Amino acid sequence: MRKTVLLICFAMVCCNIFADNDRIITVGELPAEAQNFIKKYFETNEVSYAKVEDKLFDRKNYEVVFVDGSKVEFNKQGEWKEINCKFKEIPAGIVPQKIVDYVKVNFLNCKIIEIDRNSRDYEIHLSNDIELKFDLSFNLIDIDD
Questions:
Q1: The dihedral of CA 109, 87, 68, 71: what is its sign?
Q2: Looking at residue 51, which CATH number applies to its domain?
Q3: In a domain, 47, yes or no
Q4: FRET label pair with 15: which of 43, 71, 100, 136, CA 20 to 30 Å apart?
């Protein structure tokens, strides 16, 4: 019986250690760079909520969700990681110009509605449900339709 109780306690401790700890915050609690980004590109969008995701080993992510359903994710420094505008075009000036130019030439009348970036590439989603992946030099490396 004692072993069972200890095993249950150990499992509960492990779950608490490895579980994400999400909490709602105000926009003013975001890193300064994230606040400036929202003011610059989403000034007219009303914020529904913002939250911080505390992860293991002091990794933090921030997420801001707007009333229209758009959302932006930031890393702990406040740099954007992912932007999803649902059915609207991502505000001008966010997507690198070489990617914008490629889409204008090769996908007429399509809007970029989502973009993800990481240390290896950019992935964009177009309004026609096509996904494009670019390397950090903005060369197309994959198309998923």
A1: negative
A2: 3.40.1420.30
A3: yes
A4: 71
User: Per-residue pLDDT for 19 more than 70?
Assistant: no
pLDDT at residue 83 greater than cutoff 50 = yes
CA nearest to 112, candidates 121, 145, 123: 123
Residue span of the structural domain in which 61 resides: 20-79
79, 99, 126 - which closes a domain? 79
User: Which pLDDT score, from 0 to 100, does residue 9 have?
Assistant: 46
Sign of CA dihedral 34, 36, 41, 42: positive
Residues in the chain: 145
Q: Are 49 and 17 in contact (CB under 8 A)?
A: no
Task: Provide the token pair at 12.
Answer: 């509960």
